[in-house]
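Researcher: Go.
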Amino acid sequence: MKRLFMAWCTTLFAAVLAASAGAAVDRTASAVGSHDIAVGGGQMFSLCGDPTTPMNFALSAHVPTGTPPVSGGAEQPGAGGTFNATIPESARPSCQPGRLVAKVDCLVVAANPSGGGIADVTARIVEATGTFRFAFGPPGGHVYIQAVDGGSEDGDAIDIRSALPEPCDFFSPFPRPLERGNLIVRSGA
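Model: Structure:
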């Protein structure tokens, strides 16, 4: 895990240096290495009924390229990372502030026709308070996340839903555009 993080940081640092020097940034699969990834963070309008309530989120998910999703309740081998979300105190009274922390146990990456990629992620809930406890249930359950990297053509989007109780149980998502932030979804293939 530490090596993967260091490799990701090195790649990010090289990309920042290249971009600041005016060079092209390598966002191809070879730049990712041998892992499929979905990383990023930002803000979208929350899951509450009030469309002006912000929800902040951060996603870091990875799995060795070519690892198939599993069934029967087992975690996908090599899958890891976290998903965190918060609804701030300023959301009152329309929405109850809260925090969600979930550990990634499955990641499947596919190409996005408009560029970038689409990641389907399941994560086991380890902490859920406030609105998140109501929406997703107590620790031990799962949350389903679809992260859409719109590439250079379309904006990024995300969907967060209560999931079935097993890793890798995906269903039809309804991703919503980010208000702020960025998602990067890549395959190491």
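Model: The longest strand covers residues 98-111.
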